[in-house]
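Fig. S4 source data, part A: sequence.
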Amino acid sequence: MSSPILVALDLESAEEAIRLAAQLEPVVGGFKIGLELLMGPGPGTIGALVRLGKPVFVDAKLHDIPNTVRRASRQIGRAGARWLTVHASGGADQLEAASEGLAEGAGGGQAGILAVTVLTSLTDADLAKTGITGTAGKQSARLAKLAAGHGAEGVICSVKELGVIAEVAPALVRVTPGIRPVGVGADDQKRVATPEDAYARGADWLVIGRAITRADDPRVAAEVINESLTGDSVVYARSQLNRED
């Protein structure tokens, strides 16, 4: 089984991120860089990680007017990103602009946008404070359906929303953050799940950061998670999923 782990390299320096990525490259599926690296060392970090030979997921969470998003996405595509996150709540025109800009920048290379639905740091009560009625699940489903029709390759969602998103947008790649192995604290996340639960429920990719990057031996930590995903109960659960890939 190829590893479904995307390691969240939420580190301060490019040197530290690249050194850790090189150590983990043989045992993980790819890497995520977010705002900390983008705003610090800068987009050049993307290219350095791409050269390791694994897909790089740029978690920029773009949310702006379509023309601005298109231009920013083009730049990230030129840097070699495999995936780029865009807030689905920015609307259909923004999603399409991001998809088109990323493709232009990639110049024919494989690249796609991942639409962010509801952040895993938000609960139903948090959404209500912003004026959004209903549950995180319903909001995620609405946004996933919008994203599927307007250029997204995949969706970012919590494990709790995997089932409903599979129903409304079965063709989307499903990427789940908020992954915490047993014994690891939730930190600033509120809707979390174990790697086994996420994979069994149909996640295609698991975004895992601190449980690996802060481990005494990050490579061993990643290998242990990989092994946990091959357990009989997890394999059986995935085999029962009614999916259209």
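Fig. S4 source data, part B ends here. Strands lie at 5-8, 30-33, 56-62, 83-87, 112-116, 154-156, 173-176, 205-208.
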